[in-house]
Structures are given as structure tokens and as C-alpha cells.
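Hey, resending since the last one bounced:
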Amino acid sequence: MWYVYVCEKDGQYYTGITTDLAHRLRQHGNPPLRYHEPHSTKQGAAHREREIKGWSRTKKEKLWSAVNQVSPSCAQDKFYPERSEGSPGRGELIFQSSKKPRKSVCPSLGREIRRPYLLLVILFFCGCGTGYKKAGLIAGGYDEVNMEDGVSRVSYRGEPETNPDRVRDFAFLRCSEVALAKGYKYFVIKNRESKETQIVTVDKGSSKTFYEPTVFLTMKCLKERLADTSSTTIYDAEQVNYTIRSRYHFKPIEPAASKNK
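The C-alpha cells again:
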């Protein structure tokens, strides 16, 4: 995923393209980010960059005044611009404004949601936060698919604005539970993906943006540790379970090693 961005440095607007927005802003000295938009190809991003560079200062300011985008936090160590093929990434709209500003459209539900009800939905999402739970039809949580014997694809979808590190931890917690439930002591991560779905609400011409992080982990369960551990990290399922539960003040399940002491 490529990004076109506009930041402000020394009173001037700088337009550029990058695949890592947070890293590029740090290279610039963390200036204010005025605008950013995603593109699937470098060519598309470069074309848009040239277009914006040719605009006047006033026209550039109208761009982000109309969109009113929320800048991503550059203070976090983790930033997830990548996405899985065919899934929405950062900057792709789930809630889009219709022609009438007092309504928003949710394509995933296939119907219009009037503004008061949409606000109630957003408040419900944000008020609940991301607790550790199984995913619902709309609410976030964990889910898994058994791909073959001992191999599962585990996902955890956070609520809007949830810290991506928390979502990653909960995905690992679910991996440990899957391994233990099947009678395995260890597991390895064969593949990991992450994405952030952008949710935009529109109210009386102004917009508000939320980001909903999701982490996907393809895990393989092991009865014993591998002899060669140089090429992959082997996780102790009981230890992972205990560590993450303790970190988030859940009731911990003590590792067998601790019980036997």
C-alpha cells in the first residue's frame, strides 16, 4: 500500500509518497500531518503526488478541510499499513457519506443508517473498548479457522481506535488457547498479517475517522520443541497464556512448570 501525504514544515506544505507513513514522518522530524490517502500502486500515488504539488496553497488547504482526516499517531512503535489481498486497508471507507449530509451509508449492511442511529453505533463500539471475547457479527473479538491438522488461522479484530499492540497480544492469547485445547504444548507462527479498516462518519458536512485494527496469525501446533530453532520462534503455549493474561489483569492460568515447583 502506497500513501500520498502532505505535511507542514516551516510554514510550507510538503507533498510526498511512501509505504511507511509513520517512518517517513519521523524522518521529517514529526511535522504536523495535514492529509494522507492510500493508493494500491506506486504509479497511482506518484500521479496524485504530482497533481497535488501543482495546486495552490489555498486549494491544498481546502482538501483536508473538506475531508478532516485524523493523523495517525507517530509515537507508537507499531504501524500497520499492510493488508491482506482483497481486504480493505487504511484509508478505505466502510461508512461513506451519501448525497444528503444527514445520512451515512454502510455498504456491508446494505442499507442507510440515519445519523442518530449511526452515532449510537459508534458510541457503542467506542464505549465497549476491546475486551477479550469471541467476535460477534459486528463487535470485535477473536475467531479461528482450522486449516489442517495442527494448523489454524487465528484472527483478532479490535474496536475502533484500539491500540494495535493490544489486538496483537489478544491474537497470541487465542493461539495459546487453541494449542492447549488440542493438547499441544508449543506453537509457531507460520504467517502474520495485519490491517486497519477506516470507518468514516459524516455529520453536517464534517467527518470523523476511526481506525479498526485486525491481526491474522497462521499458527502450527507442536507436541515438542523443534531441534533447529534458528529459523523460527517457538512459543510455549502455557507461558504465553500466563504472561498475556497477567499483563491485562485477567485471571491467569499458571504454567504447569510453576505448579510443579
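The radius of gyration is 21 Å.

Sorry for the duplicate.
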